[in-house]
Design a protein that fits this description.
By secondary structure, the protein is of the alpha+beta class. It has 18 helices and 16 strands. An 8-stranded mixed sheet has the order 1-5-6-11-10-9-7-8. It has a 5-stranded mixed sheet with strand order 13-12-14-15-16. Strands 2-4-3 form a 3-stranded antiparallel sheet. A hairpin with a 5-residue loop joins strand 15 and strand 16. The longest helix has 20 residues. It is elongated.
């Protein structure tokens, strides 16, 4: 049988993993600069922890894990005949693979409340799983790189997260646009069209505006029972044009009767005023179609798009005011972002903006001429590694052509030769594989050349 892997998952070669680790290390380094602390949570959570936190659409995409052993022993023939798959899942599955890192983080905060200090700033870089239809830029297993701060209502936190987003993408060399909205504004819109209880239906529909266009959004809204008259009121709001201030000024007029809508506008204005105090290279713009389908957002919401590559969101997040309340710890507000490492990987590959250091591992390969030469080289390797230089000795004394081919295939920039004459002279012949230049150097000069 030909081996295969599930659709929506991928193997990564060493060359790809070097690039992916560059992504993780870059994001991690920025998180650390802003004082965020690392945590990890299990791949599995109880089904009870995850269900009902992501909306109906999200719940369907949770990978559920069958109970061990005779999982069907409590089911009757009637259960099997009458119950839908989701209803059966709750009886035969107690665990599920995590859908994101935010809900597990909320559970973590509640369980470890006596061990952490509020406000608590954490980052987490781990895989998540979604039973989604695989397509370009959308995978069933993918990494998220999250940063959240809980226990603080301050809008300084939103400002800081925008700075983090900007710094990360500057380091990657990717031009991005940071789109912002506020769920309070969306609640205000639902209120003024007289459908406050349909806020979820409205946000899920308009969040698809960019993918499916205004006509299909309207069709979906109509299917959810929103009248054509009310849909008509939504049109100019969804398609507002102009600068951020112009959009917010127009919106302030439209949402004047809605207290919650006005509050959302003021929060966005305040964040924009704080951003004027710092340099942000990325464009930051108000996007009223941005809704982020997840139910737990209550305030500011973010989404980041690459300017030069056609791909979905490469970073997103927002404010959630009472996520820990679902686990019995009310009143803890949080705000966070999540970088989509897999999509960033695809963008960096398309743009080919990796630094050279992110494409190589070994810096120098020592050619193996035989037993006595091996013994002479081993102390050199130890000295180089102590200086942080990655080096290898080819494991067999095969033909030199084969060893040089190995260095070429691995894109190793230097090859070192230590034969009888080099041992006698206490020297190394160092070859630059890029220029072809070859010279006799001391071990110290070898180190300096490689480090340069």
């Amino acid at each position: 049988m030909k081996p295969s892997i599930p659709k929506g998952t991928r193997d990564f070669t060493p060359a790809e993993m070097i690039k992916r680790n560059y992504i993780f290390d870059t994001i991690r380094s920025v998180y650390k600069l802003f004082g965020y602390l690392p945590i990890e949570t299990p791949a599995m959570e109880t089904l009870q922890t995850l269900m009902g936190k992501y909306g109906e659409e999200g719940d369907r995409l949770i990978f559920k894990i069958l109970n061990s052993g005779e999982f069907q022993q409590d089911l009757t023939a009637q259960d099997l005949a009458e119950k839908s798959a989701p209803a059966l899942a709750t009886q035969i599955c107690e665990k599920a693979l995590r859908y994101d890192l935010t809900v597990p983080f909320a559970r973590f905060v509640v369980m470890h409340r006596n061990e952490i200090q509020l406000p608590f700033k954490r980052y987490q870089i781990q895989p998540v799983w979604r039973a989604d239809r695989p397509q370009k830029g959308r995978y069933r297993e993918f990494f998220q790189c999250d940063a959240d701060i809980v226990g603080s209502d301050s809008l300084l936190n939103e400002t800081e997260l925008i700075q983090i987003i900007d710094m990360v993408f500057q380091k990657f060399g990717i031009g991005v646009t940071i789109k912002m909205n506020n769920r309070k504004i969306l609640s205000g819109i639902a209120e003024i069209i007289g459908e406050p209880e349909k806020i979820t239906d409205i946000t899920v529909a308009i969040d698809k505006y960019e993918k499916i266009g205004i006509e299909n959004v309207n069709k979906e809204l109509q299917e959810k029972g929103i009248t054509p008259e009310k849909i008509q009121i939504l049109q100019p709001i969804i398609e507002l044009q102009g600068s951020n201030e112009e959009k917010l000024a127009k919106l302030a007029e439209i949402l004047a009767p809605s207290a919650i809508g006005v509050q959302g506008i003021e929060e966005l204005r305040y964040v924009f005023s704080l951003l004027q105090s710092v340099h942000i290279a990325a464009a930051v713009e108000v996007d009223l179609t941005l809704a982020r389908g997840l139910n737990y957002y209550t305030g500011a919401i973010f989404e980041v798009k690459a300017n030069d590559v056609q791909i979905g969101s490469i970073c997103g997040g927002g404010r959630y005011d009472n996520l820990t309340g679902i686990f019995g710890m009310a009143g803890i507000s949080g705000v966070g972002i999540s970088f989509g490492a897999d999509r960033i990987f695809d963008v960096l590959n398309q743009l080919d903006v990796y630094p050279e250091t992110a494409k190589q591992t070994t810096q120098v390969l020592f050619i193996n001429f035989g037993e006595s030469e091996q013994r002479a080289i081993l102390p050199h390797l130890a000295t180089l590694r102590a200086q942080g230089i990655s080096c290898e000795l080819y494991p067999e004394s095969v033909k030199m052509k084969k060893q040089m081919q190995y260095a070429n295939d691995r894109a190793i920039p230097f090859v070192a030769l230590v034969g009888e004459s080099e041992i006698a002279n206490n020297s190394i012949t160092l070859k630059n594989m890029l220029t072809g230049e070859q010279k006799s150097v001391s071990l110290q000069e070898c180190m300096e050349t490689i480090l340069r």
